[in-house]
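thought: user wants a sequence for this fold. calling inverse folding tool.
action: design(structure=
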């Protein structure tokens, strides 16, 4: 995924499914470096993780 698509997903009201390593995640924000994003797993656990945006996959 690229930075522009991450920005589009963040600004959209649609529920866009995104996966990281096969797990469904919410994107919290695009980080200032433009190459990483802060995400958390969908569900009760809200542990935040910083990941490379090129490892995110839109379903």
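)
observation: tool returned 59 residues.
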């Amino acid at each position: 995924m690229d930075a522009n698509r991450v920005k589009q997903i963040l600004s959209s009201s649609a529920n866009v499914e995104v996966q990281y390593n096969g797990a469904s995640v919410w994107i919290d924000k695009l980080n200032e470096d433009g190459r990483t994003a802060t995400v958390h797993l969908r569900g009760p656990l809200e542990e935040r993780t910083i990941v490379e945006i090129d490892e995110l996959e839109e379903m």
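thought: summarizing for user.
answer: Here is the designed sequence. Helices lie at 3-11.
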